[in-house]
Design goal:
By secondary structure, the protein is mainly alpha-helical. About 30% of the residues lie in helices and about 0% in strands. The relative contact order is 0.14.
Amino acid sequence: MTTTTAKKQVRPTAQAGGATDLSELVHYTPEHIAAEGWLPFSARTLRDKASARIFPHSRASGRITFLPRHIREIAAMHEVRPASERTRSKAA
């Protein structure tokens, strides 16, 4: 009796562009974000809103940290679009 070997599953480790962008894996502390001025919030506010699950964040090793995508998402959460771009709801 012969057995067949299943094909090896390959996990994706690279982005579409080829190499993995390691800068997207860097974790920033609330203090670092506030000191660099990347967001208009204090370190305390960032930590409080992350603890309340208002802001996206990571809990790497039990500490609140932010990835670059979290920082971009928080900035986008507070974006205001011009009235001309809003869609008008039609009255029934």
